[in-house]
What we know:
This protein has 288 residues and is an alpha+beta fold. It folds into three domains: 7-73 and 122-146, Ribosomal Protein S5, domain 2 (2-Layer Sandwich); 81-111, no CATH class; 148-284, Up-down Bundle (Butyryl-CoA Dehydrogenase, subunit A, domain 3). The chain is built from nine helices and four strands; from the N terminus they run βββαβαααααααα. The chain has a four-stranded mixed beta sheet with strand order 1-2-4-3, covered by helices on one side. The longest helix has 51 residues, at 121-171. The radius of gyration is 35 Å and the shape is rod-shaped. The termini are close together. The relative contact order is 0.14.
Amino acid sequence: MVSSMTGYAAVTRELAAGTLALELKSVNSRFLDVQFRIAEELRTVEPALRELAMAAVARGKLDCRLAFTPSPLARDESALNAEALARLARMSQVVRDAIPDAQPFRVVEVLHWPGVLGDEPSAAERVRDTAVEAMRTALAELVAARSREGEKLARMIRERLAKMRARLAEVEPLVPKAIAAYEEKLAAKLREVLASAEEDRIRQEIAVFGVRIDVAEELSRLAAHLDEAERVLASGGAVGKRLDFLMQELNREANTLGAKSVSKELSAAVLEFKVIIEQMREQVQNLE
């Protein structure tokens, strides 16, 4: 299976203590880059989430956002810290004795006073366990989305590989004739310019030039690179870097082929090759 580096997943979990929301976004990157934006009260669960992410994703920039919204109805009087509440009451009384006009605390102010409401350890553990479970679910959705996108990209790349291979098959038979015609034309010019030169010397010059414009090696390498690209796609997994390298090699061979071109047909084919290679390269940049 070939995967894209772009994907999205979101998971929400409702708990007695509140709502847990986890969001994953992944985009292109040369390497694996995992970034977390987590509420401070859930920071302790980050190592476990990071480990899960690095096991599920091989390449790409992955952003993870984890937020927890406490439920206003989640707390009752059993969650009140009686000692902190009594201390606050004594402090309030001292203030009112010293300043009779001082306004008493409102209930909402008391509930927001540090330490008055205490979190149960078991509730905090449930939130952390739920965060890990939500991460597993979100990663499964993300991987599935990246796989679907990857298969679409792979199909597009295979179509262009086939198109380039078909065009290469059309060009190969034309190359010997084009080179022979060009050598004959060159020989006529040499005879005209070097009227006093021997025929053997003219043939030697033509032979040397013929070696320089021979593109058989470039055509063979292009075909080999196409074979390798198809093999890599079929193998699946993290193929992006290998395919990117093959696109560079295909482009290099196409440039050399264009530099040696001696016919309009070959030059036109080289232009088509470069367009197809660039199209494939853009798609390959998205593959894991």
